[in-house]
Amino acid sequence: MVVVLVNWLIIFGAALIFGFGVAGLFGKECRQSVGSLDLLLAAGLVALDVYAQVFSIFYKVGARACLALLVAGIVAIGFYYWRKSFSLKSMAAFLGKISAVQWGVAVICVLAAALLTAQSPGVYDTYLYHAQSIRWIEEYGVVPGMGNLHNRLAYNSAFMPLQALFSLKWLGGQSLHGMNGFLCCMFSVYALGSSHVVKKQPLQLCDFFKAAMAVYIWLNREVMSSPSSDILPMLLVLYICAKWSEFTEAGIREAEPYAFLGLLGVWAVTVKLSTMACALFAVYPFFVLVKEKRWKTVLGYMFSGAAAVAPWAVRNVIISGYLLYPYPQLDFFSFDWKMPESVLTCDSREIMVWGRGIKDVSLYDMPFREWIPIWFSGQSVFYQVLIVLGLAAAAGVVMLLLKGVGQKNKGLHNILLIFVLSGLAVWIFTAPLMRYGVVYLLLPVCIVFSAIFTQGRRGSQFFSWIFFLAFMAGGIWTAWQEFDRDNLVGQEDYEWRETAVVEWQGIQIAVPVGSDQCGYHAFPGTPYQQVLELIGLRGEDVGSGFRANEKYFEKRLNNSGREW
């Protein structure tokens, strides 16, 4: 656990330093707006992720990447002092505004999250491809045609290079996996520490989003120790909604703070495509800035968005040969490492049918009215109740939206409602797997609950405090019960998976025994040995990349080399 806390301290410092500069690009309003510390950290994470992705394109993400980041951080601090943008006095003033209750919330969240993060990852997909993806970035950065060896590497979540940057394997010999824990800790402190319950003020819509964020983190606490790419995009959706509400409730009308949330929305899409609706948040500030003819700010806004997307898109092309995997329709390149179109088509349909609960690729075009009851019946009772509540609440959101149309002071709020409905619709009609988008069911519930409960009543405050205290007590108790006392100092390493070593074209490839998981330690690995008969090296070693042979293109084969 101590190692986890040190790792988090490094992440926190780096995010704060670079976030201060990034937030400044969006104006003083972004730095001085509601809850500025969380904005700075979020901005810093975007900057660090872009840096890690760019570095990975040219070199492995390890000691040199961290050293360059350290030098850049020192230069940035000196620049801030020179410009008088930051001082110890301003930091002391900020810390002085934090109440004793907020300090207590922060300490409890940090300890609880650290206890859970110190464990070994237990998420299935971590040993299927998350760990392998991070290992590739640590060892090589990015290699042409990696997707041919292991198709799931082509998912290329922008979150993976960021995790590799702070795994610090070069420093201690063990690849740390604490980034999700840090994010859960950060968003928990934000959700609970900045709520109006703690401030003893009337409840607002943002408080319901924050409550949903805290509950979501607690329900997914086993992911804290895993490098999974599922939890960050869901947290970003909740955070953007909560922050958007904070801005509107605080009467902030300037475009810059909303522009930064739009940038976060664009970044979320690069982390997980299931958040594609988040890109809507970037539209409003763009049109406002254009309308006001603030061309310099518009160009800066567009550059920031391009900077967030460009390295991710480049990595997509290098890994799979396509601009966006698994969508073969976006076929603009003819590199020799391009993955077969049939693999992408099968994979995209497989994601769709698994999300819909039918799990048969041949049924990908099953009509909505036929697969929706199959999907619903396959959910647990808890999720079935949530689905009913979410869809019923969505109808309420539609009525609120219709009521607010034409009201001048409801414009920003209506944008939020449009996003909530759009996100829910996109999720349901594409691949409604719960871990891909359960928050889209929570969002309309939050909005309707906020509209129903009278804000400012003593009764509401009383029950809010009961929920708050019970949640905090339950969180720390659960964390302590699930904590392994052997991890008090260190962080438990990735579990080993049984693999066999196959000699292939002069190199050794790990193949799982009795499963499709190679884990972290067996590297490089492929989940399907049959694929090795269909691909070849582009050069003399794995660093040269992989390409599919003619046989792979001649037949309609999937990612495991089988016909479908």
Strand percent estimate: under 5%
Total beta strand runs: 4
How many helices? The count is 24
Poorly predicted segments:
none
- Indicate the radius of gyration in whole angstroms: 24 Å
Numbering strands along the chain, what is their spatial order in the largest sheet? 1-2
Report what the structure shows.
With 564 residues, the chain is mostly helical. The chain has 3 domains: 2-339, no CATH class; 379-452, no CATH class; 499-554, no CATH class. Helices cover 62% and strands 3% of the residues. It is built from 24 helices and 4 strands. It has helices at residues 2-24, 28-32, 36-58, 63-82, 88-96, 100-117, 124-139, 146-149, 159-165, 169-172, 179-193, 205-219, 231-249, 255-271, 283-291, 295-320, 341-356, 368-377, 381-404, 411-429, 434-437, 439-452, 458-482, 550-554, and strands spanning 499-504, 507-512, 535-537, 546-548. It has a two-stranded antiparallel ribbon with strand order 1-2. It has a two-stranded antiparallel sheet with strand order 3-4. The chain is globular, with a radius of gyration of 24 Å.
Summarize the structure.
62% of the residues lie in helices and 3% in strands. The chain has 564 residues and is mainly alpha-helical. It folds into 3 domains: 2-339, no CATH class; 379-452, no CATH class; 499-554, no CATH class.
Write the layout of secondary structure elements.
Blueprint: H1 2-24, H2 28-32, H3 36-58, H4 63-82, H5 88-96, H6 100-117, H7 124-139, H8 146-149, H9 159-165, H10 169-172, H11 179-193, H12 205-219, H13 231-249, H14 255-271, H15 283-291, H16 295-320, H17 341-356, H18 368-377, H19 381-404, H20 411-429, H21 434-437, H22 439-452, H23 458-482, E1 499-504, E2 507-512, E3 535-537, E4 546-548, H24 550-554
Antiparallel strand pairs: 1-2, 3-4
Helix pairs in contact: 1-3, 1-4, 3-9, 3-16, 6-11, 6-23, 7-9, 11-12, 11-13, 12-13, 12-22, 13-14, 14-15, 14-16, 19-20, 19-22, 20-22
